[in-house]
Amino acid sequence: MTITTALDALEQVLGDRLSRSKPDLTAHGQSESHFPVTPPDAVAYPRTTKEVSQILSVCAQHSCPVIGYGAGTSLEGHTAAISGGVSVDFRDMAAVIEVRAEDMTVRVQPGITREALNEELRATGLFFPVDPGANATIGGMAATRASGTTAVRYGTMRDNVMALEVVMADGRIIRTGSAARKTSAGYDLTALMVGSEGTLGLITELTLKLQGQPEAIGAATCAFGDIEAAIAAVTATIAMGIPMARIEFLDAASVAAVNAHSKASFPEMPHLMVEFHGSDSAVAEQAERFGEIVADFGGSDFDWATRAEDRSRLWQMRHTAYWAILGWKQGAKAIVTDVCVPISTLAQAVSETQADIAASPIPAPILGHVGDGNFHAILLIDPDSATERAAAKDLAARMAERALALGGTVTGEHGVGMGKLDYMTAEHGAGWDVMAGIKRALDPQNIMNPGKVVRTNG
Amino acid sequence: MTITTALDALEQVLGDRLSRSKPDLTAHGQSESHFPVTPPDAVAYPRTTKEVSQILSVCAQHSCPVIGYGAGTSLEGHTAAISGGVSVDFRDMAAVIEVRAEDMTVRVQPGITREALNEELRATGLFFPVDPGANATIGGMAATRASGTTAVRYGTMRDNVMALEVVMADGRIIRTGSAARKTSAGYDLTALMVGSEGTLGLITELTLKLQGQPEAIGAATCAFGDIEAAIAAVTATIAMGIPMARIEFLDAASVAAVNAHSKASFPEMPHLMVEFHGSDSAVAEQAERFGEIVADFGGSDFDWATRAEDRSRLWQMRHTAYWAILGWKQGAKAIVTDVCVPISTLAQAVSETQADIAASPIPAPILGHVGDGNFHAILLIDPDSATERAAAKDLAARMAERALALGGTVTGEHGVGMGKLDYMTAEHGAGWDVMAGIKRALDPQNIMNPGKVVRTNG
């Protein structure tokens, strides 16, 4: 067995930091969404880039699959060890290496979580803005090109990763990008690695752009009579160029789930949850302009979360909405859709989706980062019901087709993993073959997270 | 001859839009900097993506080199036909395909220039912000990952290209990205193509992000006693987070050249040229905050360019500074350096460079987009003097080494072409081999702009 011989060789490198304990394997084979538990054969806990390089060299020699592992919060089965092999857990590579306040950058190891990073940055007056909700690791966020609630203002991981250290499939260590704010020095390997989901290499260090902590922050919620009015308010807000820091949509079902889970008492109507960043006067001006738009579309007065702890609670509720929704139906698993469409088509995409859900047997609350045109329907299914699974699959397929027909994408931020593979031909056509060509060139043995993002045996 | 048979086959496709006229060949073999004239064997003028695909299919069949051609304003020998072949000139593919005002995006063909695009957008209230100075084509700007004076506020081509249509080396037509504001659907082929300098494919369509025309614009110049003070004012301005739309540095020699060329009368001292965008109140506030910093560093009062025509004249002077400097020394050719460093190291990089220039026999005015840490020394040489060429090469090499030692890049915005090839190993190490691996995978015959960006026969 090639994997067995690889594991023996890896044990020489890592000693007891190569784990084969059953609970460890199961934990690394689990998923937060609907994918079955698919454990690896071992879990490696490297401490240095050199060790990661040794792991890759050994695995290349023995054709052993390698799966990068952060916090395990991905939603498309990214970390499932579907061909067995070694899960490389970056738990022990979680340091802040260097803060450069004057350059507004930070170098970190991949295993640090976004909350831990921002905790470490607190005293500097700077923060890392990308916030996918889950307390994911920075390495995992880069690998999946994560974004979330603040992307409307600060961009996604694509926009906030400046440079990387990556260990390639053959164990070579490369550095991509630079510490300068821009470069034209050849192919953008940083951008190629961000979003490659561990299929081209393992990220062992990241240089990130930071933002100044805003002088003032305002957060508020407002309710609307129907989905259309809420979405129309969003598109008007974006068209006006109001620099929203967050503008989140929750439909009535999502609000009901949040109320139940977080003991809140929002009116069970479609809501926007928003945040403004800037100087005191800028926040006041943004809030006033946004308030006028909300009023135009019949929205309620703002319910302000003025104190920092109220804001934290508000975003905590938003961030746990997925769990709230999941808890809404006993024993349910979730199929999470993640379409993103041009903002001009958002109202159509959301209302057609809502009608489609209403006509299906599946409960599916809708919520999302609508300032980017990105929204999710959380399709709740009994995992043992073939009927429900089939109905959910159909709903998800129609959402994906609708997004593509409108010029959008089937995944705005969750990535491809296994869950979106079947849509890649429809989304990319021959471009997907080009991706496979790159994969074959950089990972000829297909040991890097095989079975994700691309198909190479076609 | 494979090229000859290719040209015959191309004539079948293009008729008299395949030119072999001597003046045409010479024009397409010229460079705006120091590279010798290197004409192609023919110039193709396709009108459609399909024709571009046919050109590539024919050239792949006959192993004939293909060089994309826009406005010919690149500075690193990008369009030189060093292995002969066909220059594909996008002159006849220069249309605006679709403006989507609500999405703030536009789809264009690659041959449109940035000035023509902004002319067409004028009535929409939107504009395309990337401004490299030269009236380059949008396709060429994407291919070289151009940026320029406004990148400090609006980013580079990396940040402003959302989607592409690309014809690959075998004639396949692919679409990358989507019209949505973000996507996680696999490898970022858009970012891979932007900055690939025609070595991986030819761009035949681009979807660009647009910006709202600012309500108010303010532009001003101010003079400083020495370079150090001017640069210190820049780093302080960036650290304060003042959202400068432009912040350009010119040393005294650059100012003298501009004065002579544009019949201006700036004091011959180091200058900053700046621009503010925003609401009336925001521009006033930015100008006030910046003014305080300038005063702190002993800069002069602002000389405001208040009327639109004065602003145009100011930026026209900045944009023609390269020509002004070139005209400063009779018969000179320029070797243009393009380093970009972390902003915290900018003062050191500029002052060490200045001292190095002062100790050399080469006149070399310094200017640049210092808000990004990017600056150029224009090394003026007598092209027939081996001594001057050697001295300039040494100066350029030391600037490059200095930039790399400070964590920066040897090219912030001009690209690699032929001129920066020799620095790629120092900048990227094994990463450059990874780039070559991608090149070999996507262009196995090495027909796409051979000899640029990567070396594949190593």
TrEMBL record, chains A, B:
One of its GO terms (biological process) is lactate catabolic process. It holds the Pfam family FAD_binding_4. Keywords: FAD, Flavoprotein, Oxidoreductase, Transit peptide. It is an enzyme of class 1 (oxidoreductase). The keyword Ribonucleoprotein does not apply. Its EC number is 1.1.2.4. Its cofactor is FAD. SUPFAM superfamilies: FAD-binding/transporter-associated domain-like, FAD-linked oxidases, C-terminal domain. Residues 35-213 form the FAD-binding PCMH-type domain. The keyword Thylakoid does not apply. One of its GO terms (molecular function) is D-lactate dehydrogenase (NAD+) activity. PROSITE patterns: FAD_PCMH. PANTHER family: D-LACTATE DEHYDROGENASE (PTHR11748), D-LACTATE DEHYDROGENASE, MITOCHONDRIAL-RELATED (PTHR11748:SF111). Belongs to the FAD-binding oxidoreductase/transferase type 4 family. This is D-lactate dehydrogenase (cytochrome). It comes from Pseudooctadecabacter jejudonensis.
